[in-house]
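Lab notebook page, bench 4
Experiment: in silico fold of construct C2
Operator: M.H.
Input chain length: 573 residues
Purpose: comparison with the prior construct
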Amino acid sequence: ESDGSIDSFSPWITVCLNCDWDHVDQYSDRSSFAKTLRRLFSRTKDTIIHSDAKPLPEIIEGIDGKSIHSFASPKDPARFLEANNNAVLQTGYVLGLDFTGINFGTFPGMERRQSTLYESRERIVVEDYAHHPSEIASLLKLRSQLLPDHELKVVFQPHRYSRTKALASSFAEELSIADELHLLPTYGAFEKFDLSGAVESLTGYLPPRLRDAAKIFHNFYDLRMSLGSKKKETSDQVIFLGAGSITKWAHAFSAWEKTGGVKHDAFGCFLEGRISNQSKMVRDMPLGSMTTMGVGGAAKWYAEPTNIEDLSTLVEACNFFDIQRAMIGRGSNLIVPDQGFAGLVIRLRGEFWRSIDLRTNDTIIVGAGAKLKEICKFACAKNLSGFEFLEGIPGTLGGALRMNAGAMGWEIFDLVEWVKFLMPNGEIKQISGDELEVGYRYCREAYDGIALRAKLRAEGRAQHLEIRKVIEKMSRKRRKNQPKLASSGCVFRNPDSHPAGWLIEQAGLKGEKVGGAVVSDVHGNFIVNEGEATTEQVIQLIQKVKKRVKETHGVILEPEVNLLGHSWKEFLS
């Protein structure tokens, strides 16, 4: 009935369990919904099976030509499962089925309906889809009867602004049975924000003992701290209620309880079964070989999501458990600390992320995991010019967007028409290129969010051979001026006065070594790994170069390369 499509049904049998006014955007009042039900009953071809609870008998009264049966609904709302059993028995009888001897107690239930997520002697965590006052009343009374000695702590997230606005006082009345009440912001679903339907609208109807203590939570840490740890001298049951995103909060909290509050264990527990089998997720993954510099330790967690949904779940888990996350593409322009990274490293690999498709005569849609060299190759094959400079940059589109990668006088954002991002709050947002905050080796939105796809527009069209000539010319120049040994690309940003490589060369630093880390004799702004370098040696060499250039030229060089999980200020201040 939520969208009115119930009016399109003309069933052979209709089973009606209850009648509560809901979906107030569709039905203006109780009588409007009652009329919808009556029309459904009238269209039913053969049999109507209904609860004997009011107002259903009155709604059905006067409908002729049907076989009408009722089943008993106990007046105590906590006994709603008995009413459901009676409905099944009556339906079986009408269908000529014998349910005698069946133990309904063995029915395992449905996901998000009275689901016990965690249980110990001191605490039990339950989630339920209840999002209507009648459902909430039934469930909370049932839980109180099942565990009368347990303190009842309720976490509630209203579902839809229209419902919350219309039924605020009823919600407050039924929630008043709780010993503690914790609130999440209204889950709007498809509805636009409406202040009158925000969760705050029901707090005024709460009794003083709850009104004064109830808080609205926007992050998991605060909710977790408010619910507190389970205490041996007391017992409680924590009930998560709602039909929106609260299910994720419930599972995050149960993961925290199951693992005894060990953050990384809870993170792993939460993600079990939540990402597809095609996605890769491992602990303690060495990262050095994933970078062009070839140095550094392991990531505490490493993941390769195969789709946007799994990527979103990973980001969500990081937000819940305050796990630092980082993206790696080809690993160029990146140095990994020797001690590794104490968070989650995400890499976008696989066909979904590497797709390159021609959209129009001069535009292409590219996945964030596509290699820049492959983009250049594709554009050349389609006679699209302007992509030639990408040929020698050892990276992916995602990394290029984050760093506004450039070469030969070009930058990636010279080509960008729009970028689609996964934002930190889980929203997928498409932003046009002229609205992005872009600077030298920087794009704010790509730092805040994760680039998923981009639409790139060619400078123009040209013959395949002409484009190949430009690519080969740029390639020859790059090979002549850049070292072949392992490196992370240019180490320092170019200051306004002179190129960083020239300043380093003039300071006599070419060939300078710290262990296996060496300032390249081909290009002064490259530090190469001769084979046995460590990150500590690379950092020491960067410190030495920065100090010498300041002493000889009075110029303060700033690193362009990223240090995973750290700010250079920690090492170069």
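Observations: The domain at 351-468 is CATH 3.30.465.10 (Uridine Diphospho-n-acetylenolpyruvylglucosamine Reductase; domain 3). The chain has a mean pLDDT of 94.
Next step: discuss at group meeting.
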